[in-house]
Amino acid sequence: MAEADDIDIMNYHGGFEKIDPKNTRYPYCIVWTPIPILSWLLPFIGHMGICTSSGVIRDFAGSYFVSEDNMGFGRPTKYWKLDVDKVCGNGPATWDKAVHDASEEYKCRPHNLCCDNCHSHVAMALNLMHYNNSTSWNMVNLCLLSFIHGKHISCAAFLKTWLPFIMLSGVIATFLLTFNLQ
Predict the structure, then answer these.
(1) Residue 103: which of 65, 139, 140 has the closest Cα?
(2) Which of 95, 136, 177, 179 is most buried per CB count within 10 Å?
(3) Contact (CB, 8 A) for 29 and 122
């Protein structure tokens, strides 16, 4: 778990991109927040967005709607910092164009929880920029990789992500143990 208050990150081009949770700025990051009830049951499933080079969050929040700096289920609780040097092309400009183009495309699409969702929007942006020389980003590998590489923004964000799942698991375990012991 990382405390990310005002972390300076220097890229190889000499510029600073500041992760700033207070102002909800996560340059070159994929951000994640839990979805009530769904994330309580399956804590690796949540709502995802991708940030521009200046840290502005873009997320496919519903049919024909890509929000800017107002995630569909609240402020991010986790972020995954990506390396702009793994973008094919002109780094920041290519990154921002891919995020913009994916967002414009998803403004014309209906939202489908299982097949064409916020994870698909982020995958399209990564595919457009050929991130890490790949065009095979999809919602499954993004879900897995963001779960593995994502860092919690704060202790409170960690609790927002995991406490409902832990409490629900405790209630279920208590219930099962109570009825199995009688």
Answers:
(1) 65
(2) 95
(3) no
Name the DSSP class of 25. B
Q: Are 77 and 32 in contact (CB under 8 A)?
A: yes
| pTM as predicted | 0.86
Are the C-beta atoms of 109 and 66 separated by less than 8 Å? no
Q: Give the C-alpha separation, 123 to 136, whole Å.
A: 8
pLDDT digits (tens, 9 = 90+) for 93-105: 999 999 999 999 9
Contacts of 113 (CB under 8 A, 6+ apart): none
Question: How far lies 135's CA from each of 123, 124, 127, 145, 149, in Å?
Answer: 9, 9, 4, 15, 20
